[in-house]
Recover the amino acids of this structure.
């Protein structure tokens, strides 16, 4: 057994060393368009329907099966939590970030003596866990071989005392008694020894993973403050984020590894949580801005109501509006962990997310949705989700790959006079390629929601001859092309369609 473990470690070390050379060409901002990324010499848009969290920390989860399916469905990224663990709940039941206590793999050895609050041996913060890092390397190597980018989420909000009770950094859970604080102060600088331990863990993550070219780092998932008077405010949490970002970048510089940091400024708890984003774009803390689409999301003095958590709300106009507001800001914007209907593992919930995904991408953003059909033992989803959201996301990924999005711009001027009850989104590569997405914006509360949409559109294309055809986000099929002359307005009668349709015009005489 010892020889087998040594052999595995030697193999993983060799993989990591081979990856170091690749890391010099790591995922980066596309120099030709800062709204997109460049990966292995090609422009990249992040598209995923994933379980996100538990690939590494949940021992029974078969990440090879999960990544194989993700690659087959042309997912370009996945998001993985490195430390955070939560509990099952009625409204959030299925994420593999909710392992049973014996199945949770931590960066730290569970050495004892004594028990942590979850009934398992306490952690020793002075001992890194070989099983965790070997599994992390195997996961990243598998993702790399399949061409999948991994967002490594280093920290997370811990939300409540019963979730804080699961954290290795809570004093009752570790041998060193570090973290003798309440959960509200976990993401703050109030406990210097806790921050020192957090920094050591963050540096270890960089040391172990920054040799891969297919990673970037999220500083903290859903940072928030101001939940209780006398505890960390949103400003305190942002001060912690800036310091932690400095630690991560300092370690990357020391190793000569050029990787990107993602994140968002802290939200403020309240009767209606407030989600500001101006500093996320304006300050240098983050290279990539992650936005969780929720109510009271703010940018440039505008408020966007992008749907309540697990609500089955579509809010397509609000999603489009936020993405358009973010577009002038020169950072990639990811609608990250979209949760508006992810607990509903049915065609209705999946349709909501398909439409939000197309709307996000056709307004210059990236999109990442939690597919709760993926669980331990069902790492490629279900037969229904394979026919539904997973296939639909593949269609979206393949469609975007057929389009020169890195040289595109927002453009709705080429299409107008479309039917009522739709939200239109569009991109174009000037003079060459024009795309518009029409999504039925009716909420489920509307008795007419889902009924067929009919009508016509008006095309205003520059001079030239164009092939114009329709594309179905559901089937991935396109209609025969028709010839349209540019230089004026052209009317096009749409066939009746349900939920959504894509119109594309490509110039022929180039």
């Amino acid at each position: 057994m010892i020889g087998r473990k040594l052999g595995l470690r030697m193999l993983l070390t060799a993989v990591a060393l081979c990856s170091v050379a690749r890391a010099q060409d790591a995922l980066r901002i596309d120099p030709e368009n800062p709204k997109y990324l460049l990966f292995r010499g090609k422009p990249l848009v992040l598209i995923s329907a994933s379980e996100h969290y538990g690939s590494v920390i949940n021992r029974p989860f078969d990440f090879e099966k999960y990544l194989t399916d993700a690659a087959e469905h042309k997912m370009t990224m996945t998001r993985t939590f490195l430390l955070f663990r939560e509990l099952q709940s009625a409204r959030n039941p299925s994420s593999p970030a909710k392992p049973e206590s014996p199945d949770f793999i931590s960066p730290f050895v569970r050495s004892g003596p004594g028990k942590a609050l979850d009934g398992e041996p306490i952690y020793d913060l002075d001992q890194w866990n070989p099983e965790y890092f070997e599994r992390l390397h195997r996961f990243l190597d598998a993702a790399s071989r399949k061409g999948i980018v991994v967002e490594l989420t280093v920290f997370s909000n811990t939300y409540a005392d019963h979730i804080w009770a699961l954290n290795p950094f809570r004093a009752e859970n570790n041998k060193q008694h570090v973290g003798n604080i309440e959960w509200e102060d976990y993401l703050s600088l109030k406990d210097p020894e806790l921050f020192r331990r957090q920094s050591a863990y963050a540096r270890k993550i960089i040391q172990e993973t920054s040799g891969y070219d297919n990673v970037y780092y999220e500083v903290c998932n859903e940072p928030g403050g101001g939940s209780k008077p006398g505890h960390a405010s949103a400003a305190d949490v942002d001060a912690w984020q800036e310091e932690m970002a400095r630690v991560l970048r300092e370690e990357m510089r020391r190793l000569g590894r050029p990787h990107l940091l993602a994140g968002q400024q802290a939200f403020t708890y309240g009767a209606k949580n407030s989600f500001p984003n101006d500093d996320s774009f304006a300050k240098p803390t983050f290279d990539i801005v992650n936005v969780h689409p929720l109510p009271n999301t703010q940018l440039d003095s505008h408020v966007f109501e992008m749907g309540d958590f697990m609500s089955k709300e579509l809010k397509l106009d609000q999603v489009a509006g936020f993405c358009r507001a973010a577009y002038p800001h020169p950072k990639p914007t990811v609608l990250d962990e979209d949760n508006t209907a992810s607990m509903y593992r049915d065609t209705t919930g999946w349709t909501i997310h398909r439409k939000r995904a197309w709307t996000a991408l056709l307004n210059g953003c990236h999109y990442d949705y939690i597919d709760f059909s993926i669980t331990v033992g069902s790492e490629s989803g279900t037969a229904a989700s394979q026919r539904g959201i997973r296939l639909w996301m593949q269609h979206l990924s393949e469609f975007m790959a057929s389009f020169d999005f890195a040289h595109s711009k927002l453009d709705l001027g080429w299409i107008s006079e479309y039917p009522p009850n739709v939200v239109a989104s569009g991109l174009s590569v000037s003079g060459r390629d024009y795309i518009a997405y029409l999504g039925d914006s009716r909420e489920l509360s509307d008795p007419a929601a889902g009924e067929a949409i009919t009508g016509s559109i008006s095309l205003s294309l520059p001079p030239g001859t164009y092939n114009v055809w329709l594309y179905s986000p559901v089937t991935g099929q396109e209609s025969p092309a028709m010839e349209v002359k540019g230089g004026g307005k052209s009317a096009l009668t749409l066939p009746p369609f349900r939920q959504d349709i894509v119109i594309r015009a490509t110039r022929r005489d180039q």
About this structure: The chain is about 30% helix and 25% strand. Residues 224 and 267 are 5 Å apart (CA to CA). Confidence is low (pLDDT under 50) at residues 1-6.
